[in-house]
Specification:
5-stranded mixed β-barrel, 46% helix, rod-shaped
């Protein structure tokens, strides 16, 4: 079956496979199929150059494809892991963490360790020492849902 498909499409079978894998990467993003798709396209380029050679059987083509897939996946992993460089907005998707150090006025008093403040357009639950309404507080920590504050 595989030999029939490769024989029918010739070296273009690898190009078709590569393009299908790249389209699947767009539909099912995960930054993995792109590397295998690239390996298929490179195998297609090699097939265009070596198609008439006796050595270039479908067994060799699959072996080259497997090796290129592994190599390109390892190179891709290295490229993607390098993107962990320092960001100018390290808390972009961690809103609570981005509020640490900000000051606000209590909208509701802190009683029994719990109260509320308004920062920008959001009311936040806070934890801290008991304080009256209107007291100025500084955010010292965030656990994702609640902010920890201290008097200013």
């Amino acid at each position: 079956m595989i030999q029939g498909i490769i024989g029918e499409l010739g070296p273009w079978a690898w190009w078709v496979l590569g393009i299908v894998l790249l389209i699947l990467e767009v539909l099912l993003p995960g930054v993995f199929l792109v590397w295998i798709g690239i390996a298929a396209i490179v195998t297609g380029v090699l097939s265009l150059a070596l198609w008439g050679e006796a050595l270039w059987s479908w067994h060799v083509q699959w072996l080259v494809f497997a090796v290129l897939s592994l190599v390109s996946a390892l190179i891709g992993r290295r490229i993607v892991s390098r993107s962990g460089e320092a960001s100018d907005q390290p808390h972009l998707n961690q809103r609570g963490q981005s509020l640490i150090g900000r000051t606000a006025t209590l909208e509701q008093p802190i009683t029994e360790g719990r109260g509320r403040i308004r920062l920008d357009d959001t009311m936040w639950s806070v934890q801290g020492p008991d304080l009256p309404v209107g007291a100025r507080v500084r955010v010292t920590a965030s656990n994702g849902r609640d902010l920890t504050v201290e008097p200013v």
